Amino acid sequence: MKGLLARYGELLRLPGARDAVVFAACARLAVTMIPVALLLTVVEAGRSFGVAGGAAGAYAVGSACGQPVSGRIMDRARASVVLRVLGTAVFVALLGTAGAARHAPVAALFGCALLAGALAPPVGASVRALWPRLTDDETLRQRAYSFEATLTEFLYIAGPSLITLLAATIGAFEALLVAAVVMASGTWGYARARVVRDLRPAQAVSAPAARRGRRPVAALTVLTAIGLTAALSSALAVAVAALLDDIGSTTALAGVLLASQSAGSVVGGLVYGSRHRSGTTYARYVRLLVVLTLGLALLPLAALAHGTVAVVVLAALLIGSGTPIAPAGAEEFQLIGDMTEDGRMTQAFAGVGSFIQAGSAAGSAAAGVVAQHLGASPALLMPAACTALALVLVCAARRPIAAATTPLGPLERNPA
User: Fold this and answer.
1) CA dist 97 → 36, 41, 49, 107, 176 (Å)
2) pTM of the prediction?
């Protein structure tokens, strides 16, 4: 364990990395807290769950649309300045949204939530774009993307749990204000980190025409695969709740069961990132999708059991199927980084977030329909179906992805 942590310590010992990573983690923790805090605040104000869900949805739509735009601006301007502006603006917008939850008409509440989401700083995208500038060592870059994928899994466990605890202790409205402060302060702290202040717009390297022609196909395929792997998590949340309801168990256990899969993912990501990886990023990603699909395909076995036994079997299957999730996420980040020019990195990684949100929304909607009309067991097959489709798409686009992720040679970088 000590050796594993020491390997990740190498990342934090890179010049300027520690301050940037710590403050960014605070801002990213708030990203996982705010949707839950907003939902609870609207309900606490006496409005219906439909209105609360609509407000949370408006925030998600604003974020999915706004972050790629913010990322594009950050790639073309001083990132630290853009982040400070967004950190202040999103704080004000969240204060307005919190007030609107109590006093404003529903349309105004939705508008405030939409604006707050659009102004959310793309700190996660910025950090992922930062790692290639901090090191040229390929092993460290691979480890950094594993760290990113693992940290994301951990934050999605910690954030909702923390905000729920805060809401129960001090109230949902106050918890939303705390989340807004954490986001703003984390963003400002990240923007003031030396490596972020020193960032200057990078000059995009123009690739040969043949590669430029294949890059859109490769990027769209990988982004769609990322959306599908995000859909598995939201589809699974619905399927697990449906199974618990079918066997007469409390659906409150769904959160614990899903957290067990995330815990398996965190462990898998930590171990995966600490080891040297051979082969191409594409080949590793395909292998991980195969393993992930096979692991998820076993989940319906839990529906064959009853009562407590079904819950225990499902927990074991979820932990096992979770171990490849963060490693697959690491390779997804690596693929996006490999196929993106330096001058478009933040925008590209912000686009990843948009596809994740779109995939999550589609996954939960599709699983809900399947669970309602066909039952829990077919719904438990939905996650495997999502990753299987991602695998088919990635394999079909093998040549464009290989061409788009092959490093430029000296003559290609400097054709003159």
Assistant:
1) 14, 10, 16, 11, 10
2) 0.84
